[in-house]
Specification:
407 residues; alpha/beta; Aspartate Aminotransferase, domain 1; Aspartate Aminotransferase, domain 2; 2 domains; 43% helix; globular
């Protein structure tokens, strides 16, 4: 068999993505890490750029735990004990003690009865939502929800779906009003923290609205929150958007691969929900879990987060976020105020956004630019992300470079 008949179509498709500005392009390859020195944080070496060392302002490792010595040692020791991979899916022989310990720790951390660990947060969202959607279910989604939620809704094939304008609670209430008597079940799905902007869903208001309409639907209303960017970043103890808004979702999904610094995704909820998902979610049943070593490291990560050290890491990343936001405003840049480590730098112009990304790269700073049509016209931005391992000197260095760029 040959791929020649479709090769031209595939090449043309990639060329179209490049022309539209949505192609991801060539990946930059990290070849090493330079240790922190002289008041600056660690720097990253990239293949093809010699001894240039880059400040990484586009990492999801908000607490810097991916470089934490205790996690590295724990993972190495667990790999020595259990090997490098699980060797099977969970229900055959791929469940190891660290997986069980991690699920117990996650359930306790979030105040739930049960937890279930999966290979990634994306896989968790796509694996969980379709199992809760029937041919008589309405799915309601925030307009800025992550691609994983959009994909999960498409795969779910609900009776109907509705999208409300970003955090527009009046629109959510109207959707619930107008669908009375049309479906039996409703799933309201939202990000906890929205990855483009660093703002959060008003979970308390969502819960109150759903409670008011619960009796109108035979099988009730289920709230599902993906708080992958919230856990380890928001809340007094890092428990995410739920802690920050004093509200709790029916089902919470999050990741081990951002603030917790390891790999994998998970879902926490009641015992009946998790027991049901273990029996029905194909991305859990038919996929290998994270390695036992990763699970052991994640347990250690949770222990650090839920300690005095963790609270200091949270305080540090918030100090740096405040420093960066204040400095951006003082320079006349537009940003969104808040406590999350995502600090959006709103440029609102595609050419200028691209130019600033290149300018910062030329000055050894890695950032992520979001241009049209990835974001709507006028919403072009650079997503800056701070980490607890960074220092005030790092932020000063970034700001000093931004001073010399003409927006």
């Amino acid at each position: 068999m040959s791929l020649q008949k479709i090769a031209g179509q595939l090449v043309n498709h990639v060329a179209e993505l490049q022309a539209k500005g949505t192609a991801k392009g060539t990946e930059k390859i990290v070849t090493g890490i330079k240790a922190a020195e002289a008041g600056f944080s660690e720097r990253y070496y990239l293949e093809g750029y010699g001894d240039r060392a880059f400040l990484r302002m586009n990492s999801n490792s908000y607490l810097g735990l991916s470089l934490h010595r205790q996690l590295i040692v724990t993972e190495a020791q667990a790999a020595e004990q259990f090997g490098t991979g699980p060797g099977a899916v969970r229900f055959i022989s791929g469940t190891y003690r660290p997986h069980i310990e991690l699920e117990k720790a996650l359930a306790s951390f979030h105040g739930r009865e049960r937890a279930m660990v999966m290979s990634a947060a994306y896989a968790t969202v796509v694996g969980v939502l379709p199992q809760l959607v029937t041919s008589a279910t309405l799915v309601i989604s925030d307009a800025l929800n992550h691609n994983s939620i959009i994909t999960a809704i498409r795969l779910s094939q609900p009776a109907d779906k509705a999208v409300y304008a970003h955090v527009d609670m009046q629109a959510l209430e109207k959707i619930l009003d107008t669908h009375k008597g049309q479906v039996k079940r409703v799933c309201v799905v939202t990000d906890g923290v929205f990855s483009m902007r660093g703002d959060h869903a008003p979970l308390g208001e969502i819960a109150a609205i759903c409670k008011r309409h619960e009796a109108d639907y035979e099988e009730g209303i289920i709230t599902i929150v993906d708080d992958s960017h919230g856990v380890g970043a928001l809340g007094r103890t890092g428990r995410g958007t739920e802690e920050y808004t004093y509200a709790q979702a029916d089902i919470l999904i999050a990741t081990l691969g951002k603030a917790l610094g390891v790999n994998g995704g998970y879902v926490v909820s009641s015992a009946p929900i998790i027991d049901y998902l273990r029996e029905t979610a194909p991305l859990y049943i038919y996929s290998n879990p994270i390695t036992p070593a990763e699970a052991a490291a994640a347990v250690t990560s949770l222990q650090i987060l839920d300690s005095a050290e963790g609270r200091e890491l949270l305080a540090q990343v918030r100090r740096l976020g405040k420093q960066l936001r204040t400095a951006l405003q003082n320079l006349g840049y537009e940003t969104i105020m808040g406590e999350h480590p995502i600090v959006p730098l709103l440029i609102r112009d595609t050419e200028k956004t691209s130019a600033l990304v290149k300018y910062l790269f030329d000055h050894n700073i890695l950032v992520t630019g979001l241009n049209y049509p990835v974001v709507p016209k006028g919403d072009e931005e650079i997503r800056l992300q701070v980490s607890a391992t960074q220092t005030e000197k790092d932020i000063d260095y970034l700001i000093e470079k931004l001073k010399n760029f003409n927006v």
